[in-house]
Amino acid sequence: MIDLKEYHETEVSYLLAECMWPDNERIFQELNKYKADDSRKLYGRFMNNELIGLIGLIHLSTKEVELKHIAIRTDYRRQGIGRDMINEYIKKNEINKMIAETHEDAVNFYRNIGFEIMSLGEKYPGVERFQCILQG
Fold first, then answer.
1. In this predicted structure, what is the pLDDT of residue 133?
2. Which of 19, 33, 55, 108 could form a disulfide with 71 if both were Cys (CB 3.0 to 4.6 A apart)?
């Protein structure tokens, strides 16, 4: 994986829009947070010199992270790329605990790679959210 903090913003913005509410101002704000805050990490996976996936994390401590963003280009989904990126980051950085928050459409992705799932209830009107925890 390659550090994306200084990578071409247009490609990174496109993938961030895949896992966020696609509001240009919010995406710009998130990119700036990754660039300005050393506790935030943004990494990408490339194939054929194209950015096909990214993960964005916040280090809560040296061995605990929050997975803030994960996105895989539509034409590369369901190939294990997201799972591989998570596992590679955990192994390389000796992470003991990874947490994430997601919605119902993505909860099975986390469950299938070993995260424990807990409902947070209806965090936004009509939208149930889930906390996902992976302990190593």
1. 96
2. 19
